[in-house]
Amino acid sequence: MPKVELHLHLEGAFTFEYLFGLVEKYGGDPAIKDINDLKFFFTFKDFNHFLKTWYWKNQFYKVPIDFEDSVYNTLKNLSKQNVVYAEVFFSPWDFEANGLKVEEITEATISGIKKAENDFDIKIGLIADIVRNYGAEGAMRRLAQVTPYLNHGVIGLGLGGDEMGFPARYFQDVYKKAKDLGFRLTAHAGEADGPQSIRDAIEILNAERIGHGVRAIEDPAIIELLCKKQIPLEVCITSNLQTKIYSSVTEHPLQELYEAGVYVTVNSDDPPMFGSNITEEYLLISDKLGFSHNAIKTLCFNSINASFLDESEKLRLQTLTNEFWQDLL
Fold it and tell me: Are strands 154-158 and 83-90 parallel, antiparallel or unpaired?
């Protein structure tokens, strides 16, 4: 099935083989003797443990080629799953502590993308995730650092991180500036924090899409707002289970959101870290939530239409997807 993915973090979408190679390249870790040890290391207890391992792996990205090669391998893996287009987050500021400049990380990331696009049947849009945890004070600086790459690899701005500690209102000015510059806008909301975070992302930040957004189910008024404005949600089921937002697949509100008419899409977030890629997410909703082929077809088209592609590219992907489903249904 040709697939479009809209919520994937490059820093959390490495292949274990490549990361293990980096660990070995930079002197190893006594706790990590082989790839199986590495995979076990990424078995999370809770969201804080997830964050701890996230920053642990960052120490092994030390020079620009590490980013270029990692991105290339990630996109090769996506292409093998017939992901034909993806909008992916990157956050170069996570690696400034390693002595790297944002510009060289960004350029290495774009170089890896271009090589993968040339070698595989995949296209990529890059979204700079300025991350709430860095605070509002430097947000304009971070926007300025990625602005030279707008329409030269970078297409949008995102906002991950700690929703409760760093609410949307802190970033109102940077999002307004980004919109004026021509960035497409998405923001994580309604993941670790409740439905008000979603309203703030829409009404304060003017986000065109919401990353996660599943906590909307707790407030009928937010459901109504999402439906009225047709704001797409970038839903990541396994991610929500791994970070303990929900305890089981059957508790997850994707089906209820879908049936309420919310514009939902299916995504993987951080595939190796959560043990599920985009293919497995679609299998999950088919096997465990009872989504029919027709419903999955709708979700596929939702992802195409919710993307930041221009209309001609959307039409190309719609045609490709239609051809697949006509042969199947």
Answer: unpaired
